[in-house]
Amino acid sequence: MTRFRCAIHIVPRRGILDPQGKAVADALHSLGFPAVGEVRVGRYVVVDSDAASADAARAAVKAMCEKLLANPVTEDFEIASVEPA
Amino acid sequence: MKAGIVRFPGSNCDEDAFHAVADLLGQEAVYLWHKDRDLQGVDLVILPGGFSYGDYLRAGAIARFSPIMQEVVQHAKRGGLVLGICNGFQIACEAGLLPGALLRNNSLRFVSAPVSLRVESIATRFTSQYHLGQVISVPVAHGDGRYTADGDTLARLEGEGHVVFRYVTPEGEVSDSANPNGSLRNIAGIISAGGNVLGMMPHPERAMETALGSTDGLPLFQSILENMLGGIQA
Predict the structure, then answer these.
(1) ipTM confidence
(2) CATH architecture type of domain B2-230
(3) Is B33 on the interface with A (CB under 8 A)?
(4) DSSP of B166-189, one letter per residue?
């Protein structure tokens, strides 16, 4: 077994109002970043987990996201990286 | 009737719910500890308001996996009554007892205020003592109360009469200004397809005595009791 460090991005699904993202976008505009378009604020989760292979770690993390880390009703997740810890 | 009020770490409306059932309704009430698996034979499970597990990850997300919730889900599957108030509504959604999710208020502010609700269905075991379309005053106190669901789910909720309470003006009109959190279609409370799980963000247990400003929550608890005694299956 190898310990893998798995990084996950979780963001509000497009089409669902993200008031935090909107507030941040408004603040960026007023700070002199008029080029900023849509902003979405989510979470970044790092999970260290033992697995036989990177593929097995990735599959386990996907199951963790579906069961707990992301809400399937409102959020999308992306496994950004899976690397030996 | 025997009601069980679940206590999670971070619950803070458990005593209000206990007081409502035991002192104001005159029925038996017990606390159910989140680590226990024994529902103690209760007829009604109340998931109270609060900040279970500190709202870590998402409101209600961790509470859903507590030992007692496995039993609450089985209780609901058997047709047992579950009333989820505020954080309890969030937990019920996370546990899959009700569709949809409660997201951050669109104002990004915690809202603690009395709101007007319109009773959208009285053909339920929780609302039969109200009049259809009755406007009631019940307080809300939450930061994550924006009810959200996909279009199909919303259409089904509306089509099957499962929207039970809606945020309205004191005159009973649905409007954005009467919506404290940006809930889709001003939804404040919904009931499960089986009619035995009610989730709502407002706090009926805090609107039971004139000293607290409203008694409009009383008929909700009286409905539960009446229908249990009468054996009515709405």
Answers:
(1) 0.85
(2) 3-Layer(aba) Sandwich (3.40)
(3) no
(4) EEE-TTS---GGG-SS--GGGEEE
